[in-house]
Amino acid sequence: MPASVTIKEIARQLGVSKSTVSRALRDSSEISQETKDRVLELARQLNYSPNPIALSLLNNRTHTLGIIVPEIANPFFSTAIGGVEDIAYSRGYHVMIYQSHESYERELIDVQHIATRRADGLIVSVSSQSEKHDHFVELQEKGIPIVFFDRVSDAVQTHKVIVDDYKGAYDATEHLIKEGSRRIAHIAGPPNLSISRNRLQGYRDALQKHGLPFRDEWVVASEYSQSEGTERAYQLMALRERPDAIFAASDRIAMGVHWALRQLGYRMPEDIALMGFSDLSISALLDPPLSSVAQPSFEMGQQAAELLLELIESKSTPASFETRVLKTNLVIRRSSMKNIS
């Protein structure tokens, strides 16, 4: 097998220095176009292939992206990761995946590891326990750009990819109202997350528009988990005046509610209607199938990756950062359809 062609060999044949060849291959403005053309033409003739390790040291790049999500087992995040990988691999980047498991301490450790491994950039959806985001600011100051998706931080100035959580929640609540529900409860997510606050506000405003009461006892907070959804459902159904519909801030919460209502002997939607948020694939398989607010998780991952690669490959900081807001849409199934002709 012939030895690999090196920069030294290209320099020898052209009668120039190794640094000149190196700069020409990097498209440096210090080298004339004529010299660049000569170097690139000879490199092509000799089938020159740069050493990836040397190239990463030369460019201070590893061609690796980090992504931190609360939990890979959540189909929303696993699908978003697929979107990130779709773009990253098409552009020659690898992806390192981390889970925070909704833990602030675990998120800190993940960020430190990404800094140590010198990833070129980070895509992140913050954990529900993270109230401070200094660790992301510090990572940016080390020269590692960040893009947030879904669960974002207002404390960090960078690109963000979200869905219109407010409108999704508004539409979901309005659907329940139009189906005849009047005592609509909401199981909200952790209040420190913007997605939870926006969904709660959409629920509240839809009630107000239709002249229905907002009652504190009908709004309970929960982690985004099935087990907590079950607990909150038992709590709501034990009230003296029980709700006739529940809008859950996520499908994982809604699945816990669904199980609890079945255990308690309530019929959906005849006794109580149920609506989730995320439209996980399993939601259509429940009995009755769960109505939900669909959000384009794969596209969110793709757009987050595109924005991050722009930051990595750009030679200057953007004049302003962008927040992309993607649309949601209602997916109506049996769990909320009271008015069936």
TrEMBL record:
The HTH lacI-type domain sits at: 5-59
Keyword line: DNA-binding, Transcription, Transcription regulation
Q: Entry's Gene3D superfamilies?
A: 3.40.50.2300, lambda repressor-like DNA-binding domains
The record's PROSITE patterns line, in alphabetical order, gives: HTH_CROC1, HTH_LACI_2
The molecular function GO annotations come to:
DNA-binding transcription factor activity; transcription cis-regulatory region binding
Q: Taking every annotated instance into account, which residue ranges of this chain make up the domain HTH cro/C1-type?
A: 6-53
Which InterPro entries does the UniProt record give? Cro/C1-type_HTH, HTH_LacI, Lambda_DNA-bd_dom_sf, Peripla_BP/Lac1_sug-bd_dom, Peripla_BP_I
Task: Give the superkingdom in one word.
Answer: Bacteria
Name the SMART domains for this protein: HTH_LACI (SM00354)
Q: Which PANTHER family match?
A: HTH-TYPE TRANSCRIPTIONAL REGULATOR GALS, LACI-RELATED TRANSCRIPTIONAL REPRESSOR
Tell me the protein's name.
LacI family transcriptional regulator/LacI family repressor for deo operon, udp, cdd, tsx, nupC, and nupG
Biological source species: Rhabdobacter roseus
